[in-house]
Structures are given as C-alpha cells and as structure tokens.
Amino acid sequence: MLGASGAVGQELLQLLEERAFPVGELRLLASARSAGTTQSWKGQEHSVQEVTAASFEGVDLVLASAGGSVSRQWRQAITQAGALMVDNSSAFRMEDGVPLVVPEVNPKAAFQHQGVIANPNCTTILLTLALAPLAAKRPMRRVVVSTYQSASGAGARAMEELQTLSRVVLDGGEAKSEVLPHSLAFNLFLHNSPLQANSYCEEEMKMVNETRKIMDLPELRFTATCVRVPVLRAHSEAVNVEFEQPFPVDEARALLAAAPGVELIEQPECNRFPMPTDVTGRDPVAVGRIRQDISDPNALEFWLCGDQIRKGAALNAIQIAELLINA
Ligand code: NAP
To answer: Is 219 left (phi over 0), alpha (psi -120 to 50) or beta?
Structure first.
C-alpha cells in the first residue's frame, strides 16, 4: 500500500480487513515523513516504510494513494516488478490502455489492463453509479452537476484543519488556513484545483472527461461546478440529466432503487432526503429527491451523497482488485 498513512490509505487498511481481502504479506509505504510510525491492522502493529524501488519486489498488488507525482515516479518499478497497480491519483486516468473502472458500471474494462488500472475521481465514481442505470434505459443527452465536496476530499490534513479552524471561529478568533487555500470554517469556496483555459477548474474537467470514458459516451454533453463545503466527510451532488425523451420519475426511482451500490433515501412526507451523515463510513451512494425538471420535459433532477473516501476511493479500488481476483 503506497500512501498508507493518508486519508485514503487508512480507509484501504480498514476495508482490507472488513472485506477479508486475501493478504499474504502487507507492506505499508509512505514518505520519509511517516516512515517508522506504525499502523494497526488485524490486531497487529505494522511499521510504515519509506518507499524505494525494492519495496515492490515480490508484490502482486499495489494500492497507490500517494498523489499523482508519486504514482508517476513509481509506476515503472511497480509494473516491472510484475505487480498490478490500482492507482487512486489522476496521473493515468485518461491514458489510452489504462482502464478507468467503477466495478458496478464498467467491470469488463478492468480486464483490459496492461499493469495499471486507474480509480476514477471521487465525485465521478459517486455520480456514475446513479447515471449508469438510467443511461442503460434511455439515451442520455446532457448532464449538469453541482458538487458539495467535503474537506476530506483534500486529505487527512484538510479534515484536521476544518476541525481546528471551526474551534478557532467558535472561540472568536480569526481562521487562517494553511492546508486549504481558504478557511472552510463556516465558509465554502469554489474548488481550488487549477483553472483551465476554458475557465473550468481541473476537478470539473475531470468529471466531464472521466464520466465520458467510464460510461463510454465520448459525446455526452456535460457541465459541472465543483464547490468545497464545510462538511468533514462525504460529498454531495445536485444532478440534472436530460434524456432523448421523457423519463418517467417512477421508473427512474425503481431503477435507482435496484441499482448496485445505490440506496434510495426518499421520504417526501417528512422532507427527508440524503445527507452526508447518512453515508459517512458506509458503502452505498444515497440518492433521493428524484423529480421531473419543470423546465425541460426530457430531464430529471436528483440529489446524491456518497462517502468519497470509501466508495469514491478506497472501496472502489478494492472492488477493482476483487474483480480480478475472483475472475
Ligand atoms: P493524504 O491524506 O494527504 O495522504 C497522502 C499519502 O501519500 C500519505 O500517506 C503520504 O505519506 C503519502 N505521500 C506523500 N508524498 C509521498 C512521497 N513523496 N512518497 C511516498 N508517499 C508519499 O491524501 P489522500 O486524501 O489520502 O489522497 C491520496 C490520493 O488519493 C491523491 O492522489 C488523491 O487525489 C486521491 N484521492 C483522494 C480522495 C479523498 O477523498 N481524500 C478521493 C479520491 C482520490 P506521509 O504521511 O509520509 O506524508
């Protein structure tokens, strides 16, 4: 495991145990910063080692979650050692020959790998779980998404910063951020990934390009606005989908209720729909508030929440590895 001390790495460790993933020997790798620290797994302490080329000798599977530059740095050593790399970073996602896989959506793609499989962007994984069952029924014409992304999407240190700065504000102090570009305490801001030439940020364009690749819909019209919100963990998304023809709401609801990895939370009688706290630490993506778009007879509106460290990263990566093991 490369990036074992991070937010995704911690979740991977927990899930390997929970899902009884077959592990002969576990190697926990990170940078020199956390080398020598220990992580508890299956009741035993395992020490974290600084990654070197020798780290991958004799390894079958590398679950990488140490960022794009680290993945690029070690890709060759990993594949030359004969290991399969399931990578959580965005480094290889759009590369030809690298499958981009959500097991409930495009499992067959995983088997086309040449040593590396990319785990998609977290907001994209959560979204495609809800889009795929609808797209399988009626052709999709356009998707408009706004995201409400939690601090944990920016890693373990961003979560700590939100907690610390919230206390500072409650105590009447001035919140000065160091990890995120602005304080999230009682605040929100547009996603801070680099702006592209088209004025969309990188996170928004990841959603556009990765959704098209995963769903094999290269022409899908798609636009997104990504926002960081003061939620500790679990992302939310407001989604508008236009189809080629009208899509009855009841049919969409039934399809989503039956979709793998999706849980419906729809209690209109008490105005109760998915919230981040419903899915924190849980596997399914919660979908609700499915309704006809009053401005377009061919469009539906819905809302979803998903734990992006879990299904949006660690769980999806482990499910990819399970697909290959169980084939
Ligand atoms: P994080 O909490 O900041 O953890 C980063 C991990 O990478 C730590 O274990 C860190 O080790 C390690 N690392 C950093 N630099 C390294 C280096 N030079 N050599 C070896 N290890 C190094 O970040 P995260 O949130 O877990 O995210 C990790 C990756 O997953 C990123 O690519 C991110 O985009 C992606 N991802 C994250 C989420 C999410 O919700 N958080 C979701 C999907 C994808 P040290 O402790 O030694 O610094």
So the answer is: alpha
Show the low-confidence residues of the chain (pLDDT under 70).
Answer: none
Distance CA 287, CA 274 (A): 6
Give the distance (Å) from ligand 1 centre to CA of residue 258. 34
- Per DSSP, the three-state class of 44 is strand
Quickly list DSSP for 106-136.
-GGGGGG-SSEEEPPPHHHHHHHHHHHHHHT
| Listed residue (285, 183, 289, 194) closest to 229, CA to CA | 183
Q: How far apart are CA 118 and CA 75, in angstroms?
A: 12
Neighbouring-strand partners of residue 145: 224, 239
Residue with tokens 């377009």: 296
Sequence letter at residue 167: R
> Distance between the two ends of the chain, CA-based, in angstroms?
22
Domains parsed from the chain with CATH numbers? 7-120+313-325 (3.40.50.720), 124-308 (3.30.360.10)
The pLDDT of residue 327: 84
Label the pairing between strands 235-243 and 116-118.
Answer: unpaired
Given 113, 226, 235, 305, which residue is catalytic? 235
Q: Which of 15, 65, 71 to mutate to test the pocket of ligand 1 (most atoms within 8 A of CB)?
A: 65
Separation of alpha carbons 17 and 203, rounded Å: 31
The verdict on whether 235 is a catalytic residue reads yes
Of 28, 48, 88, the one to substitute when testing ligand 1's pocket (max ligand atoms within 8 A of C-beta) is 88
What pTM was computed for the model? Answer: 0.97
